[in-house]
Amino acid sequence: MPITLIITVLLFILAICFKKSKVLFALQIIWITIMAGFNTNAADFQNNYNTYIAANNRDKWWNLYTWLATYFKEKMIDYVHFNFFLVCIGMILIAITIVRMTKYPNLVISMYYIFPFIDNIIQKRGFYAVAVLTYALYFLLKEKNKFNYVIYMFLVFVAFQFHASALLLFTVPFFMMIPLKIERDIALASVLFCNILSGVISKVATAVLPTSLQEKNTLYFSTLASSASLVHTLVWIVWQLSFLLLIYYIYRRKESIDHIDDVMIRLNLWGTILVLFYAYDPVFTRVFRPILILDLIYVVNTLNYKDRKNRLTILGMFGVCGISFILFDLMSQWGFDYMVLQIFENNLMFN
Q1: 350 domain residue, yes or no
Q2: Is residue 351 part of a domain?
Q3: What is the residue range of 332's domain?
Q4: Where are the alpha helices (DSSP H) in the chain?
């Protein structure tokens, strides 16, 4: 067993035992940064490496990732160190969000280790976007004012510079303007009529996306969608609803609803609409990942409540994270060694 895997398991156990320790939390963040930042091989490593090598700001002058990649290459900095730089920024943003939102940061990290720790290391550009989006959503959870919405939209734009999937998060503030009852109806319709409504998605995407994103459009809605099936779609619908039900359970049992409760239930109702995209491929689940991280925090915060039944959702979230790990990593067509083990076997700090 790789020493990196042993250390990760040990930190996972310590995180559960010492929920509030800020020193341990700092060590957790440093460790995740090392594992993600200095990774030298993973399921999607070659594609990410090729994107870095091909980046040229003369072709994509408008793209922040391209500018950064071009600058680092001009300074003769290799891809691994470039990735480490962006992972450091991403983990700082996630750490700030966690620390500001809960007294139990290590319990959040323990869930994160189960899922989406592995996937965030594999999907490197996706992780950069997820980190920025997690921090962006934090501003929606703060007091409701126009300035926070402006910051949110700016940060979504920054995330979009790293991964095209961030584009969907631009719709969140507009969705939150809709009355809650109508949001529920939209989420319900998305689930019940998923196969019918999903057919419209690819047509809309083809019509509205700029030329620069049509290649991604073809990849997601044609190439990847070729292996989709009704059974797969049902599995991902149940997966998505699991998060909504956990959050809704807490929401319903609270004696008084505050701004954070209101935003969290709305974010998860918005997330339910994503099942329309899951009908094509579960790759779209990464869009929900920033909200997922906030869900981990929200569930952990039930430790603050007098109602002990709410705390059962912590066990529920551990279970959902475990199922997510099984679905996305263990049951992957590439297997455990390729998806998980090689991450622990290939790290610049330990090779």
Answers
A1: no
A2: no
A3: 3-345
A4: 3-17, 22-37, 45-54, 64-74, 79-101, 105-114, 117-122, 124-141, 146-160, 172-175, 180-192, 194-208, 214-218, 230-253, 259-273, 275-278, 289-300, 312-325, 335-336, 342-345
Structure tokens at 329: 């990593």
Residue type, 348: L
Q: Number of folded domains in the chain?
A: 1
pTM to 2 decimal places: 0.94
Helix residue ranges per DSSP H, 193-304: 194-208, 214-218, 230-253, 259-273, 275-278, 289-300
Contacts 24+ apart (CB under 8 A), 171-179: 171/270, 172/137, 172/140, 172/267, 172/270, 173/140, 173/149, 175/266, 175/269, 175/270, 175/273, 176/140, 176/263, 176/266, 176/270
- Distance CA(125)–CA(166), nearest Å, equals 11
**What are the 10-residue block averages of pLDDT along the chain, 351 residues in total?**
97 97 98 98 96 87 92 97 98 98 98 98 98 98 92 98 95 97 96 77 65 61 60 92 97 92 98 92 93 98 85 95 96 91 97 86
- Cα(313)–Cα(307) distance, rounded to whole angstroms? 12
Do 51 and 125 contact (CB within 8 A), yes or no? yes
Q: In residues, how long is the chain?
A: 351
